[in-house]
Amino acid sequence: MNKGAETTVKALRAQLVSAREERDLGKLRVVEDGLRQLGQVGYRCCLVDFDRCRLRYYVRLLGYDQARVKAQIEFPIVMDVDPVQWVPLSHLADYDEAKNTSSIHRIYEGMARYIQQKSPQLQVGSGRLGLPASRRERVAVPDGQCPRRWGRLVFGGAVAVLAIAGLVSLRLANGTF
């Protein structure tokens, strides 16, 4: 990679394949440096799922370590997956590469012999979306249960309706209504 030259995920993926085919450790280090550089600038790209042959998430690169790219999921926002993931370079694609299924299939064909799993293995989320501790309890809701605030609203509404009904019945009984 030349200094000053803009790099892309596509270019780094091609260099990775070349480094593996040639067993060239120097080229592999260039790929690692490129990934670290993209992480420093918050490079945006896509995480693809080759099993379903589709774009899975839009991500922002955060760094690189131990043969994995650190990426933050930006869209779609999901509660069941951690927003920050460690993924292989093979499952990342530039926006223009992941525009349709045939493009994603071409990426897979170029990397197939090096891909161990067709779907990226993602860490299960905490459902917290990075909110401060004081707000986490209000966001996390057990499946099938109403949040506490809705329970309070329903209870408060029922008490208000009973109070109004009581006042109306008192006025009717006194003949002042």
Give a written overview of the molecule.
With 177 residues, the protein is of the alpha+beta class. It contains 5 helices and 5 strands. The protein has helices spanning 9-22, 25-41, 101-111, 133-139, 148-174; strands spanning 44-49, 54-65, 68-75, 84-87, 92-93. It has a 5-stranded antiparallel beta sheet. α1 (9-22) runs antiparallel to α2 (25-41). The radius of gyration is 27 Å and the shape is rod-shaped.
Q: Topology, please?
A:
Blueprint: H1 9-22, H2 25-41, E1 44-49, E2 54-65, E3 68-75, E4 84-87, E5 92-93, H3 101-111, H4 133-139, H5 148-174
Antiparallel strand pairs: 1-2, 1-5, 2-3, 3-4
Strand tally? 5
Q: Report the principal-axis shape.
A: rod-shaped
Note poorly predicted spans: 1-5, 131-148
What is the CA-based Rg, rounded? 27 Å
With helices defined by DSSP (H or I, 4 residues minimum), what is the helix count? 5
Portion in helices:
40-55%
Structural class comes to alpha+beta
The fraction of residues assigned to DSSP E strands is 15-25%
Structural features:
disordered N terminus; five-stranded antiparallel beta sheet; alpha+beta; 43% helix; 5 strands; 177 residues
Quick overview:
By secondary structure, the chain is of the alpha+beta class. 43% of the residues lie in helices and 18% in strands.
